[in-house]
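Subject: sequence -> structure tokens, single chain

Hey, anyone have a minute? Need the predicted structure for the following. Not urgent.
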Amino acid sequence: MSAKPCSLPAIKRSTVLKKDVTVNVPLKPLLTKHRANTAIVYCEGNFAALDGKTANGLVRSSEKYRILSVIDSEKAGLDTGMVLDEKNNGIPLCRDLADALAAAGTVPDYFIFGMAPSSGMLSLHERSLILEAISHGMNIVNGLHEFLNDDPIFIAACEASQVEILDVRKPRAKKDLRMFSGRIAEVTCPRIAVLGTDCAIGKRTTATVLTKALNDCGIRAVMIGTGQTGLIQGARYGVALDAIPSQFCVGELEATIVEAFENEKPDVIIIEGQGALSHPAFSSSSFILRGSCANGVVLQHAPGRKHRCDFEKMPIPTPESEINLIETFAETKVIGLTINHENMIDAEVTVAITRYEKELGIPVTDALTRSPKHLIDMVMAAFPELRVSLPTAA
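Reply:
Had a minute. Here:
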């Protein structure tokens, strides 16, 4: 859904939408507005943490929005890049919405809800904050399972401020959902799924880095987003699988991959993974393997993580067991392992890379702290036919 211009209409200063819910609508903008896709990201108490993965991803990479700041009062005053990756990126962490607006010097076009809580729902405070952002004339990007376009309070607020809400996870009408057709067989380029041993482990980040690395070296790669964060970051092709009825998940992903192949004529397609095939709480990985008929899999693992995210009584599986499960479940091959370095120092990452290469017999790297060349070499070793796409191959 495209957003309407973020002009603020000259209407009365406040519109009471429901008992105890008041949206303030100023008669005129207090700050100068401009038309770039600028955004403030809300991530209170969760930036650089697992539930802040949407905000984390946006400050690392965003093709669709220019991120002006991230709201997290616990880290206010710090630089998001320094907190996340120990590299300044000029995007500040702010105390609250007022602080973020003051720092920006402009009313941004978008307010992005940058957290991914397991509940997928807004708290009362978060609802009030989004209504406040709407009152300033900001369009809303919502990646939760709670669809704000179905809520009369938010509908009225948007009408008052002439803005729109994008419910990223909201699927198309059921009558338009697609079943598996078998057309994936028409996709003749390699399809590589980036899966993991747990949820919130860096699959999307590795897929993004891998796609960029391949494109930078002359291999045309297209990434397929399968979750809300990838879509918010600007993935041109994708579908939020966890919001689609299970009967249609495989078909929707297949159709998206076929569309990307026909439109872009890529040398390789990278598919973002979700959850873990072994994880009892999530089933998206099975749909991804089925719908993509992946020729290869890159597996993401966090050696410093001892238990599954949000499930402290469940130990994280070993790469060996996850590889065995993946290769048993699908006609595919795990072509490499990537390391999530959380809770590790760099020397430990080096030891882990050496250890897993010896134990697993496949290439191993860290997509964020090691050269992208290692990712390229990983793909080339599995799909040597891609070398003809390299500029030097000519």
